[in-house]
Amino acid sequence: GDLNALPNTPAHEFLLRGELAVDRIPGGDSSPLAAYDFQHDFAFRSAYDGKGAPNFTNLTSFFKGTLDYIAYGPECTLRAILETLSESEARREGNGLPNRHRGSDHIPLMAELEIEVLDEQQRRKAKGAK
Q1: How large is the C-alpha radius of gyration of the chain?
Q2: Kindly report the CA angle at 44 between 110 and 86, in degrees rounded to 5?
Q3: Measured at the alpha carbon of residue 107, what is the angle toward residues 2 and 1, in degrees to the nearest 5?
Q4: What angle do CA 40, 42, 43 make, to 5 degrees?
Q5: I need a surface site. Which of 6, 26, 86, 122 has the fewest CB within 10 A?
């Protein structure tokens, strides 16, 4: 998804770790959001972690960063990912993105996933193996 969140930011942390500590919430303990328990049990993993994670998914003349991710759960097996555009390729076609050859300021990400139906015991086991 297009989180528009850099790695290790609260949104990214919440998506992939399944929880968000109060000190990671903007405003910390004084924030009205501090009263909420930010947790989920989806056990997401990132399709690109350790498999050619892109140095950027957004590249303009003034910004370079990873803002986009493909997260998948334990019921999926990752089969393949799309190789990402290199910075030299993007800059060769202009001063970043978008340019006359690429209409977006984000590069495409794609993953081929095989989905398996898990019972509750398999889900709990997979969640523990994050």
Answers
A1: 17
A2: 35
A3: 20
A4: 110
A5: 26
